[in-house]
Amino acid sequence: MQLIKSRLSRRETLFASAAATGAAAILHRSPAAARSTSNMGALPVKKIEGVFGTAGTLEEGVLTFDFGRSDFSKTSLMGVHVDMDIGFDTEITFQPAGDDALVKWEFCLLDQEVNGVLDGLLQAHIEPHLTNVNALHNHFLQPKPEVKFIHGTALGNPVGIAKSLYAALKNNRGQPFESSPPQDTGLPNKQIAQTIGGAHSIRGPVLSITVDRETKGLELGIRVIPASQNQSMFNFQKGERWRRSGGGVCARVRGGGKGRVGDADERVQDHGASQPRNR
């Protein structure tokens, strides 16, 4: 009975979180709380990096950590081998907001790791607690291993939030806290970046191109700048069966009220895209 109660409590918490996220954002958009990017302040970069035990990257004043799931022995999409840097990674960003920081996270988790990390997040009492879990969903069709992504947002002391996120990941599953050094992609990197029109970087053998959004929305009363996960991303890896494989593309998908998990996969297969094709 205790196990059943625990599961129901978690589910109820998630439903409450999803339903109240919009209300929480409105509450935090009061004149006293709202901050513009002109008053970003500075982050305690060294202290935050000390929590994770590794260096992050700074862009537009935003500190980003990208931790690939290097503990996965093999990763594939729709039967095609891909490197974990094509999208099997955890990303955490810190955007300064006066003395505080807007912190956003995207955790890459095996199915069996989800509940433990959810428990860790909810027990950490990160504020505002209603946005600790903004989304729990898939990013890929037919990934191996099966993974889910948890998205969340917080506003407050950046070092304290970093410690809570580190504990939720480390204590529940042992996320590798390291980034992949760049390797030779075997691709015409500059030509691809110029064609798409974005900035490019390399993680492992993967070419990553980011395109800033022209519109800058508000999260918890903070104007979100592009480097704070407000970009579209295109990842390219040269593969054995595909000359190009892309992952991590930012897209908006709308589903009907009668939709269900698996509909998108079936719709893709209906259009003859269930198997990779050479180009």
Structure description:
The chain has 279 residues and is α+β, with helices and mostly antiparallel strands. The protein has one domain (2-270). It is 27% helix and 27% strand. It has 6 helices and 15 strands. It has helices spanning 2-27, 45-52, 114-123, 158-172, 189-196, 263-270; strands at residues 57-59, 62-68, 76-77, 80-81, 89-97, 100-110, 135-137, 143-144, 147-156, 199-203, 206-212, 218-219, 222-223, 231-237, 245-247. It has a 6-stranded antiparallel sheet. Strand 14 (231-237) and strand 15 (245-247) form a beta hairpin. Helix 2 (45-52) packs parallel to helix 4. It is globular and about 45 Å long. Mean pLDDT is 76; it is low at 1-38 and 242-279.
Secondary structure topology:
Layout (H helix, E strand, L loop, with lengths): L1 H26 L17 H8 L4 E3 L2 E7 L7 E2 L2 E2 L7 E9 L2 E11 L3 H10 L11 E3 L5 E2 L2 E10 L1 H15 L16 H8 L2 E5 L2 E7 L5 E2 L2 E2 L7 E7 L7 E3 L15 H8 L9
Antiparallel strand pairs: 1-2, 2-5, 3-4, 3-8, 5-6, 6-9, 7-9, 10-11, 11-14, 12-13, 14-15
How many distinct helices? 6
Number of strands: 15
Amino- and carboxy-terminal Cα gap? 55 Å
Helix content: 25-40%
Low-confidence stretches: 1-38, 242-279
The helix/strand order is HHEEEEEEHEEEHHEEEEEEH
Mean pLDDT: 76
Query: Biggest β-sheet, characterized?
Result: 6 strands, antiparallel
Portion in beta strands: 25-35%
Based on Cα principal axes, name the global outline. Answer: globular
Number of structural domains: 1
Report Rg.
19 Å
Summing up helix and strand content along with how strands pair, one would put the structural category as: alpha+beta
